[in-house]
Fold this sequence. Notes:
single chain; 555 residues; 7-stranded antiparallel beta sheet; elongated; 5-stranded mixed beta sheet; 11% helix; Jelly Rolls; mainly beta
Amino acid sequence: xxxxxxxxxxPLQLLMATCLCHSIKAPTSSQQSFKTNLFKFYxxxxxADGKETTVHLLKDITKRYYFVLEEGxxxxxxxxxxxPCDVPIEWSILLYKPPPGKATQGDHDTQEVSKSQKVSxxxxxxxxxxxxSVETYMGMSSHSAFYLLEFLSTERDTHITVYLTTDTTxxxxxxxxxxxxxxxxxxxxxxxxxLAWKHSPSVLQYRESSQYCLLVNEKHNYKSLCAAETAIRSxxxxxxxxxxxxxxxxxxxxxxxMILSSSELSIINKVSxxxxxxxxxxxxxxxxVPNLSPNTQYYFDVFIVNLLTNASTAYTGSFxxxxxxxxxxxxxxxxGKVIHVVLEGKKQKFYSLQYxxxxxxxxxxxxxxxxxxxxxxxxxxxxxxxxxxxGLRYFSLKAKLLDTYLVQLRSTEESxxxxxxxxxxxxxxxxxxLLPESLKIKSFSKLRTxxxxxxxxxxxxxxxxxxxxRKRIEEDQIWRELQSADRCSGPESRHKSEKVLCKYFYDxxxxxxxxxxxxxxxxxxxxxxxxxxxxxxxxIPVRYHSKVVKTRKKC
Length: 555
Protein backbone atom coordinates (compact mmCIF):
# COMPACT_ATOMS: atom_id res chain seq x y z
CA UNK A 1 0.00 0.00 0.00
CA UNK A 2 1.25 3.48 -0.85
CA UNK A 3 1.43 6.03 1.95
CA UNK A 4 2.76 9.60 2.01
CA UNK A 5 5.10 10.83 4.74
CA UNK A 6 2.36 13.24 5.74
CA UNK A 7 0.10 10.31 6.64
CA UNK A 8 2.87 8.49 8.48
CA UNK A 9 3.47 11.47 10.78
CA UNK A 10 -0.16 12.62 11.05
CA PRO A 11 -0.95 10.66 14.26
CA LEU A 12 2.21 12.00 15.91
CA GLN A 13 1.33 15.61 14.94
CA LEU A 14 -2.20 15.14 16.27
CA LEU A 15 -0.89 13.66 19.50
CA MET A 16 1.50 16.60 20.03
CA ALA A 17 -1.28 19.09 19.34
CA THR A 18 -3.53 17.32 21.80
CA CYS A 19 -0.82 17.30 24.49
CA LEU A 20 -0.27 21.07 23.93
CA CYS A 21 -3.95 21.68 24.56
CA HIS A 22 -3.72 19.58 27.71
CA SER A 23 -0.93 21.82 29.06
CA ILE A 24 -3.34 24.75 28.99
CA LYS A 25 -6.41 23.08 30.46
CA ALA A 26 -7.69 19.69 31.56
CA PRO A 27 -8.57 17.37 28.64
CA THR A 28 -12.19 16.86 27.73
CA SER A 29 -13.71 13.39 27.35
CA SER A 30 -13.59 13.76 23.54
CA GLN A 31 -9.88 14.66 23.66
CA GLN A 32 -9.20 11.72 25.92
CA SER A 33 -11.07 9.42 23.46
CA PHE A 34 -8.92 10.63 20.59
CA LYS A 35 -5.73 10.03 22.58
CA THR A 36 -6.96 6.50 23.20
CA ASN A 37 -7.53 5.98 19.46
CA LEU A 38 -4.01 7.25 18.70
CA PHE A 39 -2.67 4.79 21.24
CA LYS A 40 -4.55 2.01 19.42
CA PHE A 41 -2.91 2.97 16.13
CA TYR A 42 0.61 2.88 17.56
CA UNK A 43 -0.02 -0.61 18.99
CA UNK A 44 -1.39 -2.18 15.80
CA UNK A 45 0.11 -4.09 12.85
CA UNK A 46 -0.22 -3.32 9.18
CA UNK A 47 -2.60 -5.66 7.33
CA ALA A 48 -1.20 -7.09 4.07
CA ASP A 49 -3.12 -6.42 0.88
CA GLY A 50 -4.07 -9.32 -1.38
CA LYS A 51 -3.27 -12.22 0.96
CA GLU A 52 -4.94 -14.15 3.74
CA THR A 53 -3.51 -13.38 7.19
CA THR A 54 -3.85 -15.76 10.15
CA VAL A 55 -4.48 -13.87 13.39
CA HIS A 56 -4.07 -15.55 16.80
CA LEU A 57 -6.24 -14.09 19.55
CA LEU A 58 -5.74 -14.39 23.31
CA LYS A 59 -8.84 -14.36 25.46
CA ASP A 60 -10.07 -10.84 26.37
CA ILE A 61 -7.11 -9.14 24.64
CA THR A 62 -7.95 -6.96 21.64
CA LYS A 63 -5.69 -7.29 18.62
CA ARG A 64 -5.50 -4.53 16.02
CA TYR A 65 -4.45 -4.24 12.39
CA TYR A 66 -4.54 -1.17 10.16
CA PHE A 67 -4.34 -0.35 6.47
CA VAL A 68 -4.31 2.85 4.39
CA LEU A 69 -6.17 3.37 1.15
CA GLU A 70 -4.05 4.35 -1.83
CA GLU A 71 -3.82 8.10 -2.34
CA GLY A 72 -4.85 9.79 -5.54
CA UNK A 73 -7.85 7.62 -6.35
CA UNK A 74 -11.23 9.27 -6.76
CA UNK A 75 -13.00 6.16 -5.47
CA UNK A 76 -10.93 3.60 -3.55
CA UNK A 77 -12.78 0.27 -3.11
CA UNK A 78 -11.70 -2.40 -0.64
CA UNK A 79 -12.99 -5.77 0.59
CA UNK A 80 -12.40 -7.47 3.97
CA UNK A 81 -13.33 -11.09 4.77
CA UNK A 82 -12.97 -12.44 8.33
CA UNK A 83 -13.26 -16.19 9.02
CA PRO A 84 -13.54 -17.35 12.67
CA CYS A 85 -11.90 -20.75 13.06
CA ASP A 86 -13.44 -21.73 16.39
CA VAL A 87 -15.52 -19.71 18.86
CA PRO A 88 -17.53 -16.54 18.12
CA ILE A 89 -15.49 -13.33 18.03
CA GLU A 90 -16.14 -9.58 17.98
CA TRP A 91 -14.58 -7.43 15.28
CA SER A 92 -14.94 -3.84 14.09
CA ILE A 93 -13.66 -1.47 11.41
CA LEU A 94 -12.74 2.07 12.54
CA LEU A 95 -12.23 4.92 10.04
CA TYR A 96 -9.75 7.76 10.68
CA LYS A 97 -10.75 10.69 8.45
CA PRO A 98 -8.20 13.40 7.43
CA PRO A 99 -8.30 16.62 9.47
CA PRO A 100 -9.94 19.73 7.97
CA GLY A 101 -7.74 22.36 6.21
CA LYS A 102 -6.59 25.60 7.80
CA ALA A 103 -9.35 28.13 8.55
CA THR A 104 -9.45 31.53 6.84
CA GLN A 105 -9.75 34.88 8.65
CA GLY A 106 -13.44 35.02 7.70
CA ASP A 107 -13.92 31.76 9.43
CA HIS A 108 -12.51 33.08 12.70
CA ASP A 109 -15.87 32.85 14.43
CA THR A 110 -16.29 29.22 13.34
CA GLN A 111 -13.09 28.29 15.18
CA GLU A 112 -14.94 28.94 18.38
CA VAL A 113 -16.43 25.46 17.91
CA SER A 114 -14.85 23.06 20.35
CA LYS A 115 -11.53 21.79 19.03
CA SER A 116 -12.08 18.56 20.92
CA GLN A 117 -15.29 17.93 18.95
CA LYS A 118 -13.39 18.37 15.69
CA VAL A 119 -10.72 15.96 16.75
CA SER A 120 -13.27 13.42 17.96
CA UNK A 121 -15.24 13.60 14.71
CA UNK A 122 -12.18 12.29 12.83
CA UNK A 123 -12.75 8.72 14.19
CA UNK A 124 -15.87 6.66 13.48
CA UNK A 125 -16.87 2.99 13.61
CA UNK A 126 -18.19 1.96 10.19
CA UNK A 127 -18.75 -1.78 10.83
CA UNK A 128 -18.94 -4.20 13.75
CA UNK A 129 -19.94 -7.87 14.07
CA UNK A 130 -20.16 -10.57 16.74
CA UNK A 131 -20.47 -14.27 15.91
CA UNK A 132 -18.71 -17.21 14.26
CA SER A 133 -19.97 -16.81 10.69
CA VAL A 134 -17.74 -15.85 7.78
CA GLU A 135 -18.42 -12.13 7.20
CA THR A 136 -17.36 -9.89 4.28
CA TYR A 137 -17.38 -6.09 4.29
CA MET A 138 -17.02 -4.15 1.05
CA GLY A 139 -16.34 -0.44 1.31
CA MET A 140 -15.67 2.56 -0.92
CA SER A 141 -13.94 5.80 -0.01
CA SER A 142 -13.53 9.07 -1.96
CA HIS A 143 -10.52 10.23 0.06
CA SER A 144 -7.37 8.84 1.65
CA ALA A 145 -7.92 7.44 5.11
CA PHE A 146 -6.63 5.13 7.80
CA TYR A 147 -8.67 2.03 8.68
CA LEU A 148 -8.22 0.16 11.94
CA LEU A 149 -9.51 -3.41 12.49
CA GLU A 150 -10.09 -4.63 16.04
CA PHE A 151 -10.55 -8.31 16.94
CA LEU A 152 -11.58 -9.74 20.33
CA SER A 153 -12.35 -13.24 21.65
CA THR A 154 -14.16 -13.37 24.98
CA GLU A 155 -14.55 -17.17 25.27
CA ARG A 156 -11.02 -18.57 24.88
CA ASP A 157 -7.81 -18.35 22.89
CA THR A 158 -8.52 -18.88 19.22
CA HIS A 159 -7.41 -17.95 15.72
CA ILE A 160 -9.05 -16.38 12.68
CA THR A 161 -8.12 -15.58 9.09
CA VAL A 162 -8.41 -12.06 7.63
CA TYR A 163 -8.31 -11.24 3.92
CA LEU A 164 -7.95 -7.66 2.61
CA THR A 165 -7.90 -6.65 -1.03
CA THR A 166 -8.05 -3.27 -2.75
CA ASP A 167 -8.20 -4.94 -6.18
CA THR A 168 -11.85 -5.91 -6.47
CA THR A 169 -11.85 -6.27 -10.26
CA UNK A 170 -9.46 -9.17 -10.89
CA UNK A 171 -11.35 -11.84 -8.99
CA UNK A 172 -11.45 -12.92 -5.35
CA UNK A 173 -9.28 -15.22 -3.29
CA UNK A 174 -12.36 -17.17 -2.21
CA UNK A 175 -14.42 -19.25 -4.66
CA UNK A 176 -17.91 -17.94 -5.41
CA UNK A 177 -21.12 -19.53 -4.17
CA UNK A 178 -24.15 -20.01 -6.43
CA UNK A 179 -27.23 -17.87 -5.88
CA UNK A 180 -28.78 -20.81 -4.01
CA UNK A 181 -25.98 -22.16 -1.73
CA UNK A 182 -28.09 -24.83 0.00
CA UNK A 183 -27.25 -28.54 0.09
CA UNK A 184 -30.22 -30.68 -0.94
CA UNK A 185 -30.83 -34.12 0.57
CA UNK A 186 -32.27 -36.10 -2.35
CA UNK A 187 -32.13 -39.63 -0.93
CA UNK A 188 -32.04 -41.30 2.50
CA UNK A 189 -31.54 -44.96 3.42
CA UNK A 190 -30.57 -46.84 6.60
CA UNK A 191 -26.84 -46.53 5.81
CA UNK A 192 -26.64 -43.94 3.01
CA UNK A 193 -27.58 -40.31 2.33
CA UNK A 194 -27.47 -38.79 -1.18
CA LEU A 195 -26.68 -35.06 -1.49
CA ALA A 196 -26.77 -32.56 -4.35
CA TRP A 197 -25.87 -28.87 -4.63
CA LYS A 198 -25.75 -26.13 -7.27
CA HIS A 199 -22.46 -25.67 -9.11
CA SER A 200 -20.22 -22.83 -7.98
CA PRO A 201 -19.50 -20.27 -10.73
CA SER A 202 -15.82 -20.74 -9.85
CA VAL A 203 -16.02 -24.45 -10.75
CA LEU A 204 -17.66 -23.68 -14.08
CA GLN A 205 -15.00 -21.07 -14.89
CA TYR A 206 -11.90 -22.68 -13.33
CA ARG A 207 -12.65 -26.42 -13.41
CA GLU A 208 -8.99 -27.51 -13.28
CA SER A 209 -8.20 -25.52 -10.15
CA SER A 210 -11.42 -26.05 -8.17
CA GLN A 211 -12.70 -28.93 -6.07
CA TYR A 212 -15.66 -29.79 -3.84
CA CYS A 213 -14.97 -31.25 -0.39
CA LEU A 214 -17.62 -32.72 1.89
CA LEU A 215 -17.46 -33.02 5.68
CA VAL A 216 -19.77 -35.40 7.59
CA ASN A 217 -20.13 -35.57 11.38
CA GLU A 218 -22.70 -36.29 14.09
CA LYS A 219 -22.38 -33.04 16.13
CA HIS A 220 -23.20 -29.91 14.14
CA ASN A 221 -22.55 -27.97 10.94
CA TYR A 222 -19.34 -26.02 10.41
CA LYS A 223 -19.35 -22.54 8.88
CA SER A 224 -15.82 -22.75 7.48
CA LEU A 225 -13.21 -25.36 6.64
CA CYS A 226 -10.77 -23.93 9.17
CA ALA A 227 -13.46 -24.25 11.88
CA ALA A 228 -13.85 -27.94 11.01
CA GLU A 229 -10.10 -28.52 11.03
CA THR A 230 -9.78 -26.75 14.38
CA ALA A 231 -12.48 -28.98 15.89
CA ILE A 232 -10.70 -32.11 14.68
CA ARG A 233 -7.32 -30.92 15.93
CA SER A 234 -8.80 -30.13 19.34
CA UNK A 235 -9.65 -33.83 19.67
CA UNK A 236 -5.91 -34.51 19.79
CA UNK A 237 -5.08 -35.60 16.25
CA UNK A 238 -3.19 -34.12 13.33
CA UNK A 239 -4.77 -33.32 10.00
CA UNK A 240 -3.27 -33.65 6.55
CA UNK A 241 -1.90 -30.29 5.28
CA UNK A 242 -5.19 -29.57 3.53
CA UNK A 243 -8.23 -31.27 2.12
CA UNK A 244 -7.83 -29.38 -1.11
CA UNK A 245 -4.69 -31.07 -2.35
CA UNK A 246 -5.00 -33.93 -4.81
CA UNK A 247 -4.59 -37.44 -3.33
CA UNK A 248 -1.06 -37.77 -1.97
CA UNK A 249 0.71 -40.00 0.58
CA UNK A 250 -0.56 -38.30 3.71
CA UNK A 251 0.94 -39.29 7.04
CA UNK A 252 -2.15 -40.39 8.94
CA UNK A 253 -2.53 -40.75 12.66
CA UNK A 254 -3.62 -44.10 14.19
CA UNK A 255 -7.13 -42.62 14.62
CA UNK A 256 -7.41 -41.87 10.89
CA UNK A 257 -8.44 -44.07 7.98
CA MET A 258 -7.76 -43.01 4.37
CA ILE A 259 -9.88 -44.39 1.53
CA LEU A 260 -8.75 -43.80 -2.05
CA SER A 261 -10.75 -44.48 -5.20
CA SER A 262 -10.33 -43.41 -8.82
CA SER A 263 -11.35 -39.78 -8.28
CA GLU A 264 -12.02 -39.47 -4.58
CA LEU A 265 -10.05 -38.99 -1.38
CA SER A 266 -11.76 -39.80 1.90
CA ILE A 267 -10.22 -39.40 5.34
CA ILE A 268 -12.11 -40.65 8.37
CA ASN A 269 -11.03 -39.21 11.74
CA LYS A 270 -11.94 -41.34 14.73
CA VAL A 271 -12.76 -38.88 17.50
CA SER A 272 -14.31 -39.43 20.91
CA UNK A 273 -17.66 -38.05 19.77
CA UNK A 274 -17.82 -40.17 16.61
CA UNK A 275 -16.46 -40.08 13.10
CA UNK A 276 -15.59 -36.95 11.15
CA UNK A 277 -15.40 -37.84 7.48
CA UNK A 278 -13.74 -35.65 4.89
CA UNK A 279 -14.32 -36.48 1.24
CA UNK A 280 -13.04 -34.55 -1.79
CA UNK A 281 -14.81 -35.58 -5.00
CA UNK A 282 -13.43 -33.27 -7.68
CA UNK A 283 -16.06 -31.21 -9.51
CA UNK A 284 -19.01 -33.58 -9.04
CA UNK A 285 -21.98 -31.84 -7.40
CA UNK A 286 -23.76 -35.00 -6.21
CA UNK A 287 -22.51 -37.57 -3.73
CA UNK A 288 -23.88 -40.58 -1.85
CA VAL A 289 -22.38 -40.90 1.62
CA PRO A 290 -21.94 -44.64 2.38
CA ASN A 291 -21.46 -46.74 5.54
CA LEU A 292 -23.57 -44.62 7.88
CA SER A 293 -25.30 -45.95 11.01
CA PRO A 294 -29.07 -46.51 10.89
CA ASN A 295 -31.38 -44.11 12.74
CA THR A 296 -28.60 -41.56 13.30
CA GLN A 297 -28.57 -37.80 12.61
CA TYR A 298 -25.67 -36.55 10.47
CA TYR A 299 -24.57 -33.04 9.52
CA PHE A 300 -23.24 -32.33 6.03
CA ASP A 301 -21.06 -29.40 4.92
CA VAL A 302 -19.80 -28.78 1.38
CA PHE A 303 -16.80 -26.53 0.70
CA ILE A 304 -15.68 -25.24 -2.68
CA VAL A 305 -11.87 -25.11 -2.60
CA ASN A 306 -9.43 -23.15 -4.74
CA LEU A 307 -6.62 -25.68 -5.33
CA LEU A 308 -4.12 -22.91 -6.18
CA THR A 309 -4.57 -20.91 -2.97
CA ASN A 310 -6.24 -23.42 -0.59
CA ALA A 311 -8.92 -20.78 0.09
CA SER A 312 -12.41 -22.22 0.55
CA THR A 313 -16.02 -21.11 0.80
CA ALA A 314 -18.76 -23.00 2.66
CA TYR A 315 -22.20 -23.85 1.31
CA THR A 316 -25.12 -23.63 3.73
CA GLY A 317 -24.89 -26.80 5.80
CA SER A 318 -27.60 -29.47 5.89
CA PHE A 319 -28.53 -32.42 8.08
CA UNK A 320 -30.52 -35.64 7.82
CA UNK A 321 -31.40 -38.69 9.91
CA UNK A 322 -30.82 -42.09 8.37
CA UNK A 323 -33.71 -44.54 8.30
CA UNK A 324 -34.10 -47.36 10.79
CA UNK A 325 -32.68 -50.69 9.73
CA UNK A 326 -35.51 -52.91 8.49
CA UNK A 327 -36.15 -56.05 10.48
CA UNK A 328 -33.92 -58.77 9.02
CA UNK A 329 -35.46 -61.86 7.51
CA UNK A 330 -35.25 -64.79 9.89
CA UNK A 331 -34.48 -68.32 8.69
CA UNK A 332 -35.71 -71.24 10.79
CA UNK A 333 -33.10 -73.76 11.97
CA UNK A 334 -34.28 -77.36 12.08
CA UNK A 335 -32.82 -80.15 14.23
CA GLY A 336 -29.67 -81.57 12.66
CA LYS A 337 -30.01 -79.68 9.36
CA VAL A 338 -26.90 -77.86 8.12
CA ILE A 339 -27.35 -74.36 6.61
CA HIS A 340 -24.63 -72.76 4.50
CA VAL A 341 -24.74 -68.96 4.94
CA VAL A 342 -22.91 -66.51 2.64
CA LEU A 343 -22.50 -62.97 4.04
CA GLU A 344 -21.78 -59.89 1.94
CA GLY A 345 -18.84 -58.03 3.43
CA LYS A 346 -19.59 -54.60 1.95
CA LYS A 347 -23.10 -54.42 3.44
CA GLN A 348 -22.02 -55.84 6.83
CA LYS A 349 -25.62 -56.71 7.68
CA PHE A 350 -26.70 -59.34 10.18
CA TYR A 351 -28.07 -62.64 8.90
CA SER A 352 -30.56 -64.07 11.38
CA LEU A 353 -31.38 -67.69 12.19
CA GLN A 354 -34.05 -68.79 14.68
CA TYR A 355 -34.32 -72.03 16.62
CA UNK A 356 -36.99 -73.15 19.09
CA UNK A 357 -35.84 -75.56 21.79
CA UNK A 358 -37.59 -78.91 22.19
CA UNK A 359 -35.01 -80.37 24.59
CA UNK A 360 -33.15 -79.29 27.71
CA UNK A 361 -29.78 -79.04 25.99
CA UNK A 362 -28.95 -77.40 22.68
CA UNK A 363 -25.81 -77.83 20.62
CA UNK A 364 -24.86 -75.11 18.07
CA UNK A 365 -22.06 -75.87 15.60
CA UNK A 366 -20.33 -73.31 13.36
CA UNK A 367 -17.75 -74.13 10.71
CA UNK A 368 -16.10 -70.99 9.29
CA UNK A 369 -15.57 -71.49 5.55
CA UNK A 370 -14.19 -68.15 4.36
CA UNK A 371 -13.39 -64.71 5.74
CA UNK A 372 -14.11 -63.54 9.28
CA UNK A 373 -17.52 -63.75 10.96
CA UNK A 374 -19.00 -62.48 14.21
CA UNK A 375 -21.70 -64.61 15.86
CA UNK A 376 -24.23 -63.35 18.42
CA UNK A 377 -26.69 -65.74 20.14
CA UNK A 378 -29.64 -64.62 22.27
CA UNK A 379 -32.20 -66.68 24.23
CA UNK A 380 -35.58 -65.02 24.66
CA UNK A 381 -33.92 -61.65 23.93
CA UNK A 382 -30.95 -62.05 26.33
CA UNK A 383 -27.38 -62.56 25.07
CA UNK A 384 -25.89 -65.98 25.88
CA UNK A 385 -22.87 -65.99 23.53
CA UNK A 386 -21.00 -63.51 21.32
CA UNK A 387 -17.59 -63.85 19.66
CA UNK A 388 -15.64 -63.88 16.40
CA UNK A 389 -15.45 -67.30 14.79
CA UNK A 390 -12.17 -69.04 13.99
CA GLY A 391 -12.33 -72.43 12.35
CA LEU A 392 -14.75 -74.85 14.01
CA ARG A 393 -16.73 -73.72 17.08
CA TYR A 394 -19.27 -75.45 19.34
CA PHE A 395 -21.73 -73.83 21.79
CA SER A 396 -23.48 -76.15 24.26
CA LEU A 397 -26.34 -74.37 26.03
CA LYS A 398 -28.95 -75.31 28.61
CA ALA A 399 -32.52 -74.67 27.55
CA LYS A 400 -36.15 -74.88 28.55
CA LEU A 401 -38.88 -76.19 26.34
CA LEU A 402 -39.99 -73.66 23.72
CA ASP A 403 -37.11 -71.26 24.45
CA THR A 404 -36.43 -69.18 21.34
CA TYR A 405 -32.82 -68.75 20.20
CA LEU A 406 -31.82 -66.08 17.69
CA VAL A 407 -28.45 -66.52 15.96
CA GLN A 408 -27.09 -63.40 14.22
CA LEU A 409 -24.12 -63.61 11.86
CA ARG A 410 -22.17 -60.70 10.36
CA SER A 411 -19.06 -60.50 8.19
CA THR A 412 -16.29 -58.40 9.76
CA GLU A 413 -14.39 -58.09 6.45
CA GLU A 414 -15.11 -56.09 3.31
CA SER A 415 -14.92 -59.29 1.25
CA UNK A 416 -17.62 -61.95 1.44
CA UNK A 417 -17.56 -64.53 4.22
CA UNK A 418 -19.34 -67.86 4.62
CA UNK A 419 -20.12 -70.33 7.40
CA UNK A 420 -21.96 -73.61 7.96
CA UNK A 421 -24.41 -73.70 10.89
CA UNK A 422 -26.18 -76.56 12.64
CA UNK A 423 -28.47 -76.67 15.70
CA UNK A 424 -29.14 -80.03 17.30
CA UNK A 425 -30.09 -81.56 20.68
CA UNK A 426 -28.42 -84.86 19.81
CA UNK A 427 -24.98 -84.79 21.44
CA UNK A 428 -24.37 -88.45 20.65
CA UNK A 429 -24.60 -87.72 16.92
CA UNK A 430 -22.01 -84.99 16.30
CA UNK A 431 -21.98 -83.36 12.90
CA UNK A 432 -18.20 -82.97 12.79
CA UNK A 433 -15.49 -85.40 13.84
CA LEU A 434 -13.52 -85.07 17.06
CA LEU A 435 -10.79 -82.52 16.36
CA PRO A 436 -7.12 -82.50 17.40
CA GLU A 437 -5.62 -79.65 19.40
CA SER A 438 -4.23 -78.09 16.23
CA LEU A 439 -5.16 -78.23 12.56
CA LYS A 440 -1.71 -77.15 11.37
CA ILE A 441 0.39 -79.22 8.95
CA LYS A 442 4.11 -79.35 9.77
CA SER A 443 6.92 -79.86 7.26
CA PHE A 444 10.52 -80.89 8.03
CA SER A 445 13.05 -78.73 6.23
CA LYS A 446 15.98 -81.10 6.85
CA LEU A 447 14.05 -84.03 5.38
CA ARG A 448 13.32 -82.23 2.12
CA THR A 449 14.93 -83.60 -1.03
CA UNK A 450 14.72 -82.70 -4.71
CA UNK A 451 11.98 -85.32 -5.21
CA UNK A 452 10.20 -85.57 -1.83
CA UNK A 453 9.04 -83.75 1.31
CA UNK A 454 7.97 -85.03 4.74
CA UNK A 455 4.84 -83.66 6.44
CA UNK A 456 3.11 -84.43 9.76
CA UNK A 457 -0.20 -83.64 11.45
CA UNK A 458 -2.05 -84.38 14.68
CA UNK A 459 -4.79 -86.99 15.00
CA UNK A 460 -7.32 -87.86 17.73
CA UNK A 461 -8.30 -90.68 20.08
CA UNK A 462 -10.94 -92.03 17.72
CA UNK A 463 -10.18 -93.79 14.45
CA UNK A 464 -10.76 -91.45 11.53
CA UNK A 465 -9.95 -91.22 7.86
CA UNK A 466 -7.34 -88.73 6.61
CA UNK A 467 -6.76 -87.85 2.94
CA UNK A 468 -3.74 -85.92 1.62
CA UNK A 469 -3.82 -83.74 -1.51
CA ARG A 470 -1.09 -81.79 -3.27
CA LYS A 471 -1.11 -79.00 -5.87
CA ARG A 472 1.74 -77.42 -7.79
CA ILE A 473 1.68 -73.60 -7.57
CA GLU A 474 3.79 -70.56 -8.51
CA GLU A 475 5.28 -67.92 -6.20
CA ASP A 476 2.68 -65.30 -7.13
CA GLN A 477 -0.19 -67.70 -6.34
CA ILE A 478 0.69 -68.39 -2.70
CA TRP A 479 -1.21 -65.51 -1.10
CA ARG A 480 -4.29 -66.00 -3.26
CA GLU A 481 -4.42 -69.76 -2.61
CA LEU A 482 -4.09 -69.35 1.15
CA GLN A 483 -6.56 -66.45 1.45
CA SER A 484 -9.27 -67.71 -0.89
CA ALA A 485 -9.29 -71.31 0.31
CA ASP A 486 -12.77 -72.55 1.23
CA ARG A 487 -12.25 -74.41 4.51
CA CYS A 488 -15.66 -76.07 4.19
CA SER A 489 -15.06 -77.58 0.77
CA GLY A 490 -14.15 -81.27 0.66
CA PRO A 491 -12.02 -83.42 -1.67
CA GLU A 492 -14.88 -83.47 -4.18
CA SER A 493 -13.74 -79.99 -5.27
CA ARG A 494 -10.21 -81.24 -6.05
CA HIS A 495 -8.88 -82.73 -9.26
CA LYS A 496 -8.29 -86.49 -9.07
CA SER A 497 -4.63 -86.04 -10.03
CA GLU A 498 -4.06 -83.99 -6.84
CA LYS A 499 -4.91 -86.90 -4.52
CA VAL A 500 -1.84 -88.46 -2.84
CA LEU A 501 -3.27 -91.00 -0.34
CA CYS A 502 -5.92 -91.75 2.30
CA LYS A 503 -5.19 -93.50 5.62
CA TYR A 504 -6.82 -94.38 8.96
CA PHE A 505 -5.13 -93.90 12.32
CA TYR A 506 -5.75 -92.99 15.96
CA ASP A 507 -4.06 -93.19 19.37
CA UNK A 508 -5.71 -93.29 22.78
CA UNK A 509 -2.89 -91.13 24.09
CA UNK A 510 -3.36 -87.62 22.55
CA UNK A 511 0.36 -86.92 23.01
CA UNK A 512 1.20 -89.72 20.56
CA UNK A 513 -1.63 -89.13 18.08
CA UNK A 514 0.77 -87.87 15.41
CA UNK A 515 1.33 -89.25 11.94
CA UNK A 516 3.95 -88.46 9.29
CA UNK A 517 3.98 -89.05 5.57
CA UNK A 518 6.73 -88.87 2.94
CA UNK A 519 5.32 -87.41 -0.28
CA UNK A 520 7.38 -88.67 -3.22
CA UNK A 521 7.39 -88.14 -6.99
CA UNK A 522 7.86 -84.36 -6.82
CA UNK A 523 9.90 -82.06 -9.08
CA UNK A 524 13.07 -80.27 -7.95
CA UNK A 525 12.89 -76.59 -6.95
CA UNK A 526 9.08 -76.58 -7.13
CA UNK A 527 6.41 -75.13 -4.81
CA UNK A 528 3.60 -77.46 -3.66
CA UNK A 529 0.42 -76.74 -1.70
CA UNK A 530 -0.51 -79.62 0.67
CA UNK A 531 -3.97 -80.19 2.23
CA UNK A 532 -5.20 -82.80 4.72
CA UNK A 533 -8.91 -83.66 5.09
CA UNK A 534 -10.30 -85.32 8.24
CA UNK A 535 -13.54 -87.35 7.88
CA UNK A 536 -15.80 -88.15 10.86
CA UNK A 537 -18.77 -90.50 11.29
CA UNK A 538 -21.15 -88.17 9.44
CA UNK A 539 -18.86 -88.00 6.43
CA ILE A 540 -18.52 -84.21 6.61
CA PRO A 541 -14.81 -83.32 6.20
CA VAL A 542 -12.72 -80.85 8.16
CA ARG A 543 -9.84 -79.29 6.25
CA TYR A 544 -6.50 -78.68 7.95
CA HIS A 545 -4.68 -75.40 7.32
CA SER A 546 -2.92 -75.52 3.93
CA LYS A 547 0.87 -75.82 3.90
CA VAL A 548 3.23 -74.59 1.16
CA VAL A 549 6.56 -76.46 0.79
CA LYS A 550 9.31 -76.10 -1.81
CA THR A 551 11.49 -79.03 -2.83
CA ARG A 552 15.26 -78.60 -2.95
CA LYS A 553 16.69 -77.25 -6.18
CA LYS A 554 19.93 -79.25 -5.98
CA CYS A 555 20.67 -82.48 -4.18
